[in-house]
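User: For a benchmark we're assembling, each entry needs the component sequences followed by a predicted structure for the full assembly. Here are entry 17's components. Please fill in the structure.
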Amino acid sequence: MPSRIQVPEPERETIAIGLEGSANKLGVGIIRHFPRPNKNSHRPPAQILSNIRHTYITPPGEGFLPRDTAKHHRSYVVKLVQQALKQSGIPIDDIDCVCFTQGPGMGAPLQSVAIAARTISLMWDKPLVGVNHCVGHIEMGREITGATNPVVLYVSGGNTQVIAYSHQRYRIFGETLDIAVGNCLDRFARTLHIPNDPSPGYNIEQLARKGKHYVELPYTVKGMDVSMSGILAFIDGLANDIFGGKAKYADDGSEITREDLCFSLQETIFAMLVEITERAMAHVGSQQVLIVGGVGCNERLQEMMGIMARDRGGAVYATDERFCIDNGIMIAHAGLLAYETGYRTSLEDSVCTQRFRTDEVFLAWRND
Amino acid sequence: MNDDRKKAEDSEALPALPKYLSEALDLKLISQGAEALVYFSKAHPYLPATLSSDVIHNSPISPAGYILKFRPPKPYRHALLDAQLTKHRTLSEVRSLYKMMLAGVHVPMFVAVDPRQGLIWMENIDGPSLKKWIWGQEEEIEKKVSDEDSRLTMREQTVKPTLVAVGHEISKLHFMDMVHGDLTTSNLVLRRKDDGSLEPVIIDFGLSQQSTLPEDKAVDLYVLERAFISTHPMHAEEYITWLLEGYLAGFGQGKKTAKFKAREIMKKLEAVRLRGRKRSMVG
Amino acid sequence: MTLNHLDLYLPQFPDSQIFLTLYTNVTNASTIRSNLLSGNTKYSYAFLDPKSIVSISHVLAAVYRALTERAAGSMRTRTVNSEIVFSMSPSMSIGDGLKRFGSKDDSTSILVVRLFEDEDKCADVTQVLTALDEIVDGDRIPISDSAIEPLTDIEIVRKNYKIPKGVQLTNREEATKIISGALALRGYI
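Assistant: Structure for entry 17:
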């Protein structure tokens, strides 16, 4: 076992502002960290000073395109930063650093938010800290739930990964081989012309609750990984048949409804996610599961994961929609953790990157 | 949160093996994976001990007893999906075992299957896993000689032939277009034969699949490489080289057409090694 | 010790007593068959043709399959006895299976399997054997793998199980392995 690594820790309170915009949610958050009161105690919980978000919502049947999303972010970022500052009551001088999502995500939206971050960093003369979006979710999840060393299921519109911590990195144990689970749900929502307000996934969840019949769908788990494009193609086909007048029937003779399809899709893909999470837990010998990312808000997923975790003598941890949906506070939090270890992102290095794997980040602030 | 926790020691926390089985047989739980429970049983599912060996002398019995692999229901899954998966996976595994047995690959003999209950009976292999055996050899060699050169020579004499044989066995699997899905040094077992020699046996076909793609076979080998690196870090490179020697030499019994296939797989293995895990993420 | 019958229980089915007997020099095979087909309740047995049998283990593999199908509610024939005969077959065709593996009109030896369960529990072995001896006109010989060996017709086995010419069937243990696997995987492979 490696001996405990010395991690530099601040002696005073620190404050960060974080900007997030890797997909269609624009978030700004301000967070305060406290130092350890004495050698033998833990650091007190972080304080959320403000957490504001504005989502770019498209009409039913339409997805969000990078250019329009970037436009949305540009239109709202100044207002959100001002609102966040006002809400926090913190003078700009007290802010230690400006954190922003460096990746992964959609190119144009990432860049628009990065530009805003660089601008305020120069205006306020505060250092910049680039943050990995996934690490943001994980660190915020750990902070809010208190889970010490869980296996993390990170599920959103853009990502599907099973992660476990080891030696200063979040290692990816399993992931999607094609599309993310949120993406699968969002696209099916479009097929069904479900409204995107507040989010397509939320609306699918509501419809699924009313579903009664389970329709057999392909189930694709390959070792520690999952594949979703085949399921989407299949269920899109079913939906199109039903809309085209070729009704499908359940065993009891009743017609298959959109509610049934939503229900079946959730049951299938969530079972797949629970399965690969369980595999990772068995592999690393962990009993805690932390679900982060937008799809983590789904109560059925939380319920299924909870059943599995309890059967193994463990527990599931999840956050509410303030934190599981993309937000600025998680960026501020993860960025501030890095800042406290001396990490800075120079302007030259602040280029955004659409592909940024979770395991590329060196977690200098973890000493376990 | 604390109320939700169940102690892992609670016997009720173990998924329920059908009652009649646990009562009628003296089953010993030997491992509990994410998907299945593996029990050891001295008894055969349909050749009870009351039948004497002279009466049933043509029975394919296992002197080292039997393994009962049980895929329990998963309560978090929808009941219909769960039943389907249990049945499908159980059958997939026995199909692999049977096909490989017919092809002459050394795998545990499949005895019986109850797909609805998720039960597979198979032969228990008497012998150490490759992992344990190598550790044992390394320890012995360390005690006998102290200089690295002599140690290497001894490894070449004892460990190498076994690894070459293991590599050969795996090549038979791949030549039959079967990909194991979980090749580790624990899933390779060395069966002690009557003459004292060791025969490599490949076990645990729970994640196996048919595939003609060289990429899939390369990933199979890559997973094994990573396993060597993690369980035998000191000499992993050496062991992998010997294993691949046996793999290449044995592939398709050394026939010409097979050599091309084997080269394809090696090329893909190079690529997989460089890439590490599969894909770059997209946001 | 030689037995003129075998009775056993399978661990998974503690309430089903399995009875096996073997007859040679049978003279009334066609009578047995016609009674069986007409549904005579005295003939509730599985009558197997030993020409297709390589070992007792082979038969028990079929019995196991029949019992697990019954427990799952997925038997393909009407009774557990016909299911045992059908379970000897590697193929899904019921009529074909019953014809190939069941006793024939001109059979001169028969292997009989019977299940005793619940109220039907076999209280007295002698009673059972007497009833059987009344139905089958032949010599009830001690049942064992050795007794079965001369009765097997390897070419019929090869044909019924579609075993390629290249595969040797002289080693009965190996043959049993291959055949048991085929019938366990019937419909799934």
